[in-house]
Queue: 2 jobs
Job 1
Amino acid sequence: MKELEERIAAEGRVLPGEVLKVDSFLNHQLDPVMLEHIAREFHRLFADAGITKILTVEASGIAIATMTAYVFGVPAVFAKKNRSRNLDADVYSAVVHSYTYDRDYTIMLSKRYLKASDHVLIVDDFLANGRAVEGMIQLCEQARAEVSGVGICIEKGFQLGGRLLREKGIHLESLAIIASMEDGKITFRKTE
Amino acid sequence: MKELEERIAAEGRVLPGEVLKVDSFLNHQLDPVMLEHIAREFHRLFADAGITKILTVEASGIAIATMTAYVFGVPAVFAKKNRSRNLDADVYSAVVHSYTYDRDYTIMLSKRYLKASDHVLIVDDFLANGRAVEGMIQLCEQARAEVSGVGICIEKGFQLGGRLLREKGIHLESLAIIASMEDGKITFRKTE
């Protein structure tokens, strides 16, 4: 998605440890126009998948999921990262390793909001090692819901997550794939 | 806002400790149509306030802020609750007491995304004791930004937050104000 690549090139900041910050528009400050364009691109790519629900994980996926749900005309649901006193006891859950924080955390989703009849589009801001997406796939498996696709804004193509998901036969669409960001220079892999 | 009150009456669940769960449409599962209507109501109520930025706090405010930003045509920004390795060192911050979790936490916002020239609309899902909103007002004060309004989906009218904010002269609009929810029965205070 050319518009997203251009925005990353213009505003993305590369920090030590292969960290790419795009917090001017995607996951701290939020540009609703960019988010709408991202959502419309997901809709173009998954229009025929019969999507009934958008799934993401808090916090940085929520804005993307909200706008994607709006464009698809279906509900979104976000998995929560910490056991909250207000979360139903009756939850699906999966353990996810965060490389950013170097620790495991649990993601949880109320059983009320994911059903065997759902065709789920999982969305998130970043895909690196793919652990968060794997966790969300586990939630869908527990609900016997169908994972109809995974839509990612920015894939770190030099890390393993994308390959692992594609090898599993998951329909993964990443709107921008970063080939490398050595010495602070961001280069993209071609996408459709 | 009649539509919101009706939805709360139909789907809200009252739990012990004056907890109201509306996670079927507002803060776990997300109904994008309801969110759009909430955003349009905020726009009606704050249309003349010259809003340049929507401010909320993760996680449950993000969906509301995203759609509100979309309707207003301005960026949103969400304060983060935990020090993240990926957050700028250069942040505004405030300490907030959570009654839900009975602990203090720090909210943080990159100085890049809140400026003295901003006219800020603070939005959130709930207002109870008002501590989260007070924290966001502190962030705005640090930035010398103007708090042009506070838009709340559900105010617990029997708790102190709303009165404290109104007494301060803050332009607060709550789309649904709960007068009481004794014995699981939700009654609303009249709103405009």
Note: Chain A has a mean pLDDT of 94.
Job 2
Amino acid sequence: MLNAEILAIGSELLTPHRTDTNSLWLTERLNSVGIAVKLKTVVGDDEARMEESLRDALRRSDIIISTGGLGPTEDDITRKVFARVTGCTLTMDYDVLAEIRQRITSRGYEMTPNNERQALIPRGAMVLPNPNGTAPGIRMEQDGKLIVLLPGPPRENQPMFDDYVMPLLEKRSRGIRIATRVLKAAGIGESQLDDKIAPIYKQYSNPTTTILFTEAGVEIHLTATAESTARAEELVEELADLLEEKLENYVYSTRGESLEEVIGQRLLLRRYTIATAESCTGGLIAQRITEVPGASEYFVGSVVSYTNEMKTRLLGVEAELIEEHGAVSGIVAEAMAQGIKERTGATIGVSVTGLAGPGGGTDAVPVGTVYIGLADDVGVSNKRLVLPGDRYLIRWRASTIALEMVRRRYLL
Amino acid sequence: MLNAEILAIGSELLTPHRTDTNSLWLTERLNSVGIAVKLKTVVGDDEARMEESLRDALRRSDIIISTGGLGPTEDDITRKVFARVTGCTLTMDYDVLAEIRQRITSRGYEMTPNNERQALIPRGAMVLPNPNGTAPGIRMEQDGKLIVLLPGPPRENQPMFDDYVMPLLEKRSRGIRIATRVLKAAGIGESQLDDKIAPIYKQYSNPTTTILFTEAGVEIHLTATAESTARAEELVEELADLLEEKLENYVYSTRGESLEEVIGQRLLLRRYTIATAESCTGGLIAQRITEVPGASEYFVGSVVSYTNEMKTRLLGVEAELIEEHGAVSGIVAEAMAQGIKERTGATIGVSVTGLAGPGGGTDAVPVGTVYIGLADDVGVSNKRLVLPGDRYLIRWRASTIALEMVRRRYLL
């Protein structure tokens, strides 16, 4: 089995405010082709330390992957240190330079001498194109070792890694294959879910099962290893089917799709359209739905009515209703859902009104109280929740539960 | 200045699902007494790698702090490796053994031979009591170096560190104190910013300067060390002032506030209210504004008009205008800003219409084209941008630039 080592570069990763998260994603990708990560190092923008770390890594690991330090500023020294350690000369790559220039000027910025440094490439190394930023990646093979330098931002390094590194790793790691499956579930607590499925997955040592709690619900990660991809897939499929059957409607996705994507597919199929009326979530549900490309096929619009007056002006909720029941109430949630449905002409209106805090809670309406309304041609309904967590989590959870309500109502 | 190095021990920290977070808290504590963290390593429960990492750490750093691997199971080998590297014998500490026994039996469990291993202490080391778990910590000084082994769980290692390590560190780092400042800037590229300020910050070795690119703009991190907190503050203040002056209006925050918070403070001060009309950002701007607690004081609402029809129905944009100029145009952006201002009665209306892709681009309107509109009592204006990146980044950048336009327009 091949060993990999990850080097996260950047002084900011040695402060109390930031931590390396790139290595998690990279580890998953490496594991998927049967490569184990044996060590991770975080080093600052310090030439001597970085050089030492890189030399140590080259001595002990088959594959070395670094992230960060490829930017245009003076403290981005990864290229330089890397060239010194591998004994390569840095040379200007004029194709890369032209691309960087084009990128920068198209954004209305001026090209500076600093930007030119990003086109310095160690001789003999392969340039990894970066469509999402100016810093290209670098890939090199030396003495049977594979060295990959990636930029820091995930948006830049992830597609780069998948396009230009994974194919190579798959070739190198011949023999062991891994198959994974992620089941996503919503509307059920982590321990409740575990109670349901533990008797099943405990009977299997391959695939292994890991249960994770995320902002968008619970994820069940299954990983199977075998001598062939087909066999690994078979193993993972068998357990996934058993778990899905046991969990019934709680599972919304078995192929990694997000809740937003699942809802989108379902609405498209039924030719339904949807609109949201949001108070405490402040546009979060609309934003999540529209993160999916092509959402305009089924999402028509949203109103964020952050004050009582706006609930009346923009959604037609009667002022007396708010007066009598309070803005955070089931009746107002229903009126908001009905209002957005009527004003947009959408098939489905979803609404959220609640108290995300930190201030404003009372005994009757504590922080975390959220009402979700749902209106369609059949009728209108609401659901009350008291959600734990801080402002951020309350807003996220409310938006997830609203989306989950939509999914449940329009199960095929 | 003393250098510290942190070793996070545990194979689970080398999986895709878990990452070391102990080091963030430890870094903050170390920094507070003027000790810099120069390197962090994550190593699994692998004797050879751990031994190598510990030897390397002892060679290059004054202070070595490890977390994890002190538990009772076979794979908790930190004690053993540590004893070998420092040349100390592990001996049974009968006081510690008695405490462990008492702890375990009082919880109704049976003492196992594995538990006894936790009472093995390197000769000459100091035992750090652990009131919150069975694994005691270990502290040792050798050749002027300080080595501290802590258990993994934060609720065990944090009180232990504060009680038995911090007092020693304060003594060792006598005098040296650290002050930090974060300047945040928007509307300027990373390298353009660096060109402007490098001639200034390069003259200073104290404070040190690090520049970071984030989703919300550029951050400049300054760190000063001095014999007293007051002097460190003075040093960091001096450079911060110079940089801020040089960068003029690009700097939106000098105390770590987010762009959303800065805008909120400014609107509150002027008693202005704001509303957004969003197309391609799908509610993202509203969502960002309302992430700030108390946003209801100045944010009234938003309309997400994701189709042409909704721009007309919800915002009163004339259909002919869209027909003639296209939905992604400056004129429509202005009409949307004007429309949301009128419909909500807010002081300021901000709008975004654009094409986030991935599909739908043409030669005239390529993916990434975004128009931002701004309407207030003075008048209405728009700005055209062609943003690079994928759907996610285009939406994020558009929302940041819209917020930045608001900030610029209402500078004090």
Note: The mean pLDDT of chain A is 90.
